[in-house]
Amino acid sequence: MRLQAVKGTADRLPTDQPSWRRVHDVARRVLERAGVRELTTPVFEFAEVFERSVGEAADLVVQKEMYTFDDRGGRRLTLRPEFTAGVLRAYVEHGMHTWPAPVKLWSHGPAFRAENVQRGRFRQFHQVNLEVVGSAEPVADAEAIALFVDVLRALGLEHATVALGSVGDPEDRQRYNAYLREALAPRAQELTPTSQERLRLNPMRLLDAKDPGDRALIDGLARPLDHLGDAARAHFDAVAAFLRDWGVPFEVDPSIVRGLDYYRRTAFEIHADGIGAQSALGGGGRYDGLVAQLGGPDVPGIGWAFGVERVLDALAQVGAAAPADAGPRLYLVPMDEEAVADVARIARALRTRFHVEHGYTKRQPGKGLRDADRAGARYAGLLGARERAEGVVQIKHLASGAQTSVALTDLAAALDRPDPAASVGEVAPAATQEV
Ligand code: HAM
Fold first, then answer.
1. What's the gap in Å between 278 CA and the centre of ligand 1?
2. Across the beta sheet with 103-112, what order do the strands follow?
3. Is any atom of ligand 1 closer than 6 Å to the C-beta of 107?
């Protein structure tokens, strides 16, 4: 068998890294300015962490999407399918309810779901995740949603759409589920098997049905937002009012339901066009009661996650890819055997300040220049017997072809100057940016 990456997983190649790094850097900058601090939790947890949190009617459970296994000590472990459960487990374990509230935490990393692989849906994917724990105020919901939009905008995704809804309080949900059961009972047999299962376990999830036959039965029914009690309705209106006040565009989506069971009241998703059927960049909502369910104090919370792969796909659609990593400032070419040791020594010394690479074997000048070019270097430095005798390096500015000879002792200073070789002044970026 030819060895290859497991279906639904992917390698992230060096050329992919700048875009990924940019997503994390932008998220970090935007979130940390709002007082969100980074938390890293393990990639696997006791299975119970997820079993207690995502809910037995969640897609993850119903569709057996969790990677759960026994380790050698007989512990049942699960690769995290999402971050919320692990973050809240850590919140409880470290007594974060004693920290000034709300505790705002962001995380990023891989998550694992045994799903049917398609565009935008993988088995190992990556999330950027936010949790705001310890506030039941609508302003917390609005801030979380606004931060999501801020991150996307800062990345260059101006036109993602926020769909805001509410799944209500548990009583509202029960009432709505009872309504759906009653409304659909006479024609339940006509639903697809998946939808029949949902009707039995978690009727609200029927609203996500894609099958046209199912849709025909569901489309005329009332939505979760029509079944809110007074408290959940007031909460929803307050969240919407904050977003309007801040000029954060959103659409009310009365049908929003989520694949995870722990949501109460606010539920939202953010979609982008042009990234295929899996158009949700991310989503989240309020999960009051979940911390208590995990054995902690009864503190409320709200959060979201976005899929990094989907955000990168959306960025590629709008042509907002990150610039490639810069190549070396200098690529040194040894033109004879003796120069191999010289260029290696010079490179090591210059690397305290600059990105410098060099050839490992002697090269003809023409080939050496081609090596430098392929490495993406700004300058090539040629060193042979004559240069050694004179204590210089021939420095060639690859873009202009201008060449000059620079004394070894001046090399660092020359690399610092805007352009040591080119006679016509092209301004080099400041030294701090390029190393
Ligand atoms: P979720 O909607 O299950 O929510 O996932 C959030 C995002 O992760 C999705 O919108 C999607 O972009 C990405 N995603 C999910 N599954 C996959 C997959 N198989 N392949 C690629 N991308 C995927 C949560 O995970 C909640 N924990 C969010 C949350 C945080 N709620 C409160 N706090």
1. 11
2. 37-38, 103-112, 124-133, 301-307, 280-286, 264-271, 161-166, 251-252
3. no
d(CA 194, CA 87): 31
What token pair was written down for 402? 């201008």
DSSP 219-256: TTSPPGGGG--HHHHHHHHHHHHHHHHHT---EE-TT-
Q: Is the CB of residue 306 below 6 angstroms from any atom belonging to ligand 1? A: yes
CB-based contact 283:305 (threshold 8 Å): yes
Say if ligand 1 is within 6 A of residue 10 CB. no
Strand 161-166 and strand 251-252: the pairing is parallel
* Assigned token pair, 21: 């790094």
Residue 309 near ligand 1, beta carbon < 6 Å: yes
Atom of ligand 1 minimally distant from the CA of 269 = 10
Is the pLDDT at 118 greater than 90? The verdict is yes
Q: Is 176 in the pocket of ligand 1 (CB under 6 A)?
A: no
Q: What is the pLDDT of residues 138-168, one digit of tens each?
A: 999 999 999 999 999 999 999 889 999 999 9
Summarised one tens digit per residue, pLDDT across range 379-393 is 999 999 999 999 999
Is the predicted pLDDT of residue 172 greater than 80, yes or no? Answer: yes
- CA 258 to ligand 1: nearest atom: 2
β strands within 279-402, DSSP E:
280-286, 301-307, 330-334, 356-358, 379-383, 392-397
Of 310, 312, 313, the residue with max ligand 1 atoms within 8 A of its CB, to mutate for a pocket test, comes to 310
Q: What CATH code would you report for 330-431? A: 3.40.50.800
Cα pseudo-dihedral 17, 162, 34, 22, rounded to 10: 10
Burial profile 226-260: b = 16 or more Cβ within 10 angstroms, e = fewer: ebbeeebbebbeebbebbeeeebebeebbbbbbbb
Closest CA to 169 of 327, 300, 328, 15: 300
- Asked whether the predicted pLDDT for residue 429 surpasses 60, the reply is no
Judge if the beta carbon of residue 149 lies within 6 A of ligand 1: no
Q: Which helix (H) or strand (E) holds 345?
A: helix 337-350
Give me the CATH topology for the region 14-168+228-317. BirA Bifunctional Protein; domain 2 (3.30.930)
The domain spans of the chain are: 14-168+228-317, 330-431
Q: Whose CA is nearest to atom 17 of ligand 1?
A: 121
